[in-house]
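ugh ok so i messed up the first submission bc i forgot one of the chains. this is the corrected input, ALL of the components this time, i swear. 940 residues overall. if the numbers dont match what u have on ur side tell me asap before i send this to the collaborators (the ones from the other lab, u know who)
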Amino acid sequence: MKHVWKGLGRALYFVSALILIMSTLSLKTSPVLAETAQKNGQGPEVTYFKLENGLDVVVIPDHRAPVVTHMVWYRVGAADEAPGVSGIAHFLEHLMFKGTEKIAPGQFSKIIARHGGEDNAFTSQDVTAYFQRVAKENLPMVMEMEADRMSNLKLLEKDVLTERDVILEERRSRIENSPNSLLSEQISAALYLSHPYGIPVIGWMHEMAKLSRKDALNHYKKYYAPNNAILIVAGDVTPDEVKKLADKFYGPVKRGPDLEERERPMEPNPVAPRKVVLEDARAGKLSWQRHYLAPSYKTAPKGDSEALELLMKVAVEGTTSRFYKKLVVADKLASSAGGGYSPSGMDYGSLYVYAVPAKGVTVEQIEKAVDELFDDIRTNGISELELNRARNAYIADYIYGNDSQSGLARRYGFSLSTGWTIKDIESYPDRLKEVGVDDLKRVAEKYLDLKASVTGILKPKPKLVAETKK
Amino acid sequence: MKHVWKGLGRALYFVSALILIMSTLSLKTSPVLAETAQKNGQGPEVTYFKLENGLDVVVIPDHRAPVVTHMVWYRVGAADEAPGVSGIAHFLEHLMFKGTEKIAPGQFSKIIARHGGEDNAFTSQDVTAYFQRVAKENLPMVMEMEADRMSNLKLLEKDVLTERDVILEERRSRIENSPNSLLSEQISAALYLSHPYGIPVIGWMHEMAKLSRKDALNHYKKYYAPNNAILIVAGDVTPDEVKKLADKFYGPVKRGPDLEERERPMEPNPVAPRKVVLEDARAGKLSWQRHYLAPSYKTAPKGDSEALELLMKVAVEGTTSRFYKKLVVADKLASSAGGGYSPSGMDYGSLYVYAVPAKGVTVEQIEKAVDELFDDIRTNGISELELNRARNAYIADYIYGNDSQSGLARRYGFSLSTGWTIKDIESYPDRLKEVGVDDLKRVAEKYLDLKASVTGILKPKPKLVAETKK
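and heres the new structure output, hopefully the right one now
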């Protein structure tokens, strides 16, 4: 029942057995919806306050049903790990279910489930988050439990060793047995020469195998504390109710160490295109993808992130994109094709394009088609009509996404944990409206740069010796 | 007057103006010579002792002339740098010439020169070393000066800023203006997904630009101390003389912090070949190279490192190699071709092959020739005759290299600083004798693995707009 959430540009690893909520949500990540909705009078009136111990609290009322989504986001992810202990953030996420003085090992999720709720947790490069969706009356209970494990985690050596086997098996089944995942790891490693986004969230196998109780406790003591966390409560609650409960349950949790601002080693200037070719007998079909080093919303010069969103929507995202209409529909060069941009991520976003060549079509033909597509945009730009269509589609997505309580909670949680302010979130759609066709042309020039790219090719390998060339 | 020493598999950056000794030395790195020589009665009787403050001292007598080579090796290199401060090891090496209470800024080398001596310093991924070659009677003086700056370095903010401009300019002239160097950096970055050998010794420009006095002092205080250093004195001295002088000058230097054993993040299992293509108008000719992830002597299973030395000697190293004779002489596919293996390096060695295609020859033709060459060795192995010839040539190199006083000093210094024992150094030639033709075949299978490789291509780019394709 493990699940990878690919929606944030980088993999998020879920731990618990209850992932239904997450997997049925729209995974589009733009942290925007709330505000559009708000302006239309459809959206939540978001409230923010801070407890004395430093815990940030965000309340997103949604009174359509008597349920609440309760999330705690820690401002720490895999990209904050010390060198050599890759996977420790994700490992600790698993270990957070090992119990405290009050809650026996493995009981956390069972208690939630017994009350008809669902819970889960995930780790990304930038954040680690825990959440529960429960009936309104159970909010005090989940707050008490979540606040409890914020500082009272009990880690027994034997539980750590057992759980380490679990994450190793998770890596085996999810990565080692999946040529696509293996290739993704290699592409990230080749894309990021210096930044830790090049290291997989789940960790490198040889380092995971050595993770210890001490490593987990070091990480826990340093990063798990109210002053490094954000509490999001969305649902059938008022800010006053949440304030009282938060004071009661989270208020007594002691501050942790004052942490320096998160600064990861950033990328050097890109100078040469890279290519990674994975040949694997388990690969079903030949596939092609290209990833570009791209800024996140947080690191992009003003306007670039918004323009990239719309550029990729016009150019490659979905079946209405130029790319799909040309490669799949008109020229029949590919059986599927797409791409996109995500502004999520503290330090870099995600900018990519992919295609599965049709039978008999070579990788070179696909590359030529992609080059032509982007060359055309760089040279001739795109039309107002295309831009408006993309923008409208985007806004429609916002409004649709706004219906999801936990989607909103996740958007606020993720954005705030990675350095956006509430104002950033609220002003995003307006900034999107300021993007013009010239901006799209400009960012196409600037970011769709082969020098900043890694091309990944997955090649099926003949399974029989007799099939091989040698 | 800057100089890059490529002999250790990874670039070493020299700082001072006096590099004549180094640049005229054989740069072959196998840390072996002393012993062979010793067995023939030609070599030095190497003596080792340790001072009370932890300083290791090695004395290599050489009474042919009244000169001495004095080196201090710190067991710290670029691969030990904290994330985000790439280049700090090399920067500090520069700053070590900024003076102490006794020696005014910039005077260190001048004093040595005034006494007819030469001095220099360099930084590699694994070590930072300082050395002087002086007339025998000046040994006490250089010892006093070197011991002085081991703990009394004076760093003024203005000197740090001035010197930072120097290293930035060094990077500009040596790397940014050299397509070959740029490509080398990209290849290393693509070869090492996790290990810091993927980060250039000189540092990434954007990180170098932020290096501070504080960064330098942190590095200095942590790593520069007698218990993290090795003193090598080679030349017209006896162990007793050196002991007395070392006690007098280095004895009073206080121990530094106890350091943990150096452990860097090691590489995950390689799964896919990578390719980096650098197109550059400044590139003179098309060139091709391939690097493989390879163990160092220190990390290789017993015998593998020795077998790789001889394998590469037979296969690709120099004009008597199979590769050269086939590609350059017989088939005229390349105007130059070569390769090699170096067992140096704490964590990984260096294993590579390169060729400059002849006019009209494509990269694909070169790759095919390389694949065939290695396939042949993997399938058919090599002959006893070839192995013996390679081994004899190797041993001849030892004996020749043994004539160089500073070569020997460097060999002992580098090897001991990267975890070899004196016994490792002394027994190396004997272990080489144990390598058989089957070992060469075996290591060819094991290490010449495309999955563990990065291919780098440097492509000249047309300089005139009219020459370009678009």
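quick check: DSSP finds 17 helices and 13 strands in chain A. that seems consistent at least. Confidence is low (pLDDT under 50) at residues 1-41 of chain A.
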